[in-house]
Amino acid sequence: MKAFRLEVRKSLFVAEAARAPHADAARDFVSSVRARRRHATAGHHCWGFVSTAEERCDDDGEPSGTAGRPIITAIRSHAVAAELGAVVVVARWKRGPNLGRGGLIRAYREAALGALAEFGPADEVLSDEIPAGDALVRRAAVIVPFELTHEVFAALRVCGGDTLEHAQELGIGLDAATIRVEVPASAAGLLEATLSHVRDINVQWES
């Protein structure tokens, strides 16, 4: 995902988000961001991690409660990210005056929300069941690298969808699977959002 940049009174905030199923994966991502050459001059690398089982955060030298907790608040407000497990790192380069506690809280939360934008609509509600009375369904052919088919099945569980057909295509330079799926019409956008991080995926909806 692309980094989200925010400038507040000459302080630069650069935020990045990633899927993280557990705290160790979150810490690994934080370490990878810190290690980048362009981040060597950042004064702070604050982060938050949320999954269905646990939460972690670090203010990294900012006043207590002004960075990590606002990042967690942003992740919690994003249903897709919170359900899948997500970590957001916000690096700060201070180039201007102090922002105060309120200014820092707003800046870190806004930067985190910007980084989470590509996870999909923040107001989607996840469910493992098809909503009562939702008789409308949509079908699609999902073309995905064979080694990543598990991502499709995981997304279907989140959306309350089903697999209709699963075929593998082999050939020169081709090793892909085509999975025909069916999801509640209300969950079509959620399926795409849940799969948005998967490389070389193509979701073709049937009319």
UniProtKB/TrEMBL annotation:
Cellular component GO terms, alphabetical: cytoplasm
Q: What is this protein called?
A: IMPACT family member yigZ
Q: Could you tell me which InterPro entries the record lists for this protein? A: Impact (IPR023582), Impact_N (IPR001498), Impact_N_sf (IPR036956), Ribosomal_Su5_D2-typ_SF (IPR020568)
Enumerate the spans annotated as Impact N-terminal domain: 9-115
Q: Which GO terms describe its biological process?
A: regulation of translational initiation
Source species, domain of life: Eukaryota
Q: Which Pfam families match?
A: Impact_N
Which organism was this protein described from? Hondaea fermentalgiana
| Record lineage | Eukaryota, Sar, Stramenopiles, Bigyra, Labyrinthulomycetes
What does the sequence similarity comment in the record state about its family?
Answer: Belongs to the IMPACT family.
Gene3D superfamilies annotated for this entry? Impact, N-terminal domain
